[in-house]
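Hi there,

I know you've been waiting on this one. I reran it after we fixed the sequence typo, so this is the corrected version. Both the input and the resulting structure follow.
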Amino acid sequence: MKILAPLIFLVTLSLTNFAHAKSQCEVNKNDFEENAKLSFSEFDQTGSKPKTSRVLGELKCYLSAAEVSERYLSMNLNLTTRERAIITWHMAQFLASAGKEKEAAPLMLATLTGKEIEASADNFDWNSYVIGSWAFIQKNRSLLEQSLANLINKGGQRNTMNSKVLLRFVNCFNSSYDESFANTACDKSTKP
């Protein structure tokens, strides 16, 4: 009986933690309506409420984060093109992190910018980052490496930041999106 007591405690603790984690990820109609009242920044950038995409993503509730993002887009028709693209990009990242690469791929490509977007002062190359990320989930190493080279060659703070992500994808090419994206172990080359 002495052996069973600690085992029962561990099982109860595990079930309690699972139930708590599950409730953190649950979203409902009220959450959608509350999110719809938030500005783009409050919803996507700062996560001012517990059921925003930002907070749900940080909790690794990726499918819920994607769901609230989709609902937010459908309920906020006054967003700018840029804001819609950013939310769509983050929705794609949440789906890819959840292992839904097939669903994420077209959303990633939907955020590509057209020729009407002027080059920024720091030579920011959003499209190379998008194509490189898309290439990673499609497991197209040559296109990923080409996109990484484009970002490195253009320099600038934002390109440097995004090139670090693509470098992780190159170095951990056979890992999942979620395993590679923020994994500092992927910063160093894994090639022999």
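Quick highlight: The chain has a mean pLDDT of 88.

Best,
R. S.
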